[in-house]
Give the backbone structure.
Amino acid sequence: MFSGDFVMHNFFWLEKIYAHYKKWHEETGGTCIEVHVYGPQKVLAQPDAVLIANVITDFYRAFPELKGHLIAPYLQRNEATHTLPEIGERGTHLGIETPWENLFCAGDWVRHETPAFFLERACVTGMEAANRVLTARDMETWDIKSSPPPEPMAAWIESLMMKGRKNRRKRVISKKVES
């Protein structure tokens, strides 16, 4: 995770995640890094070449030992449409506890009762998953504070969002029934 005056927000060493990158790493000693930039809008509005140059410059600030070793950058722009705090039907996606023994999940899209989204949800679910591991090992868990209710304006906006989602679900279901 990056914080402060970096352009990017988080990153992943892909050879730690995917087998084909691991194989490539073992054969070449190279690494592949995926970097995410979430905003602000004026940063996202930069031309691709400028955004890539800024990310590379900042990445070298964080990892100076990698300077001069870039093979090829690739930029993929995604729409900012991920507004739902779940994937699939409500209650059907993975939660912190999984069907598999001793496997717990954490992340932006993991089911949890907290109203937090994105990074905040990842932190809360990470702490909850860690607590499940601690419990399984008969160790003391961390106290996780409940979030306060939303302020009136945020609660009103949330109610509008929920009404809109409910109406959209009805339209999607009625289209499926018609077909």
Summary: The helical segments are 19-28, 41-44, 48-62, 118-136, 152-178. Residues 10-66 form one domain.
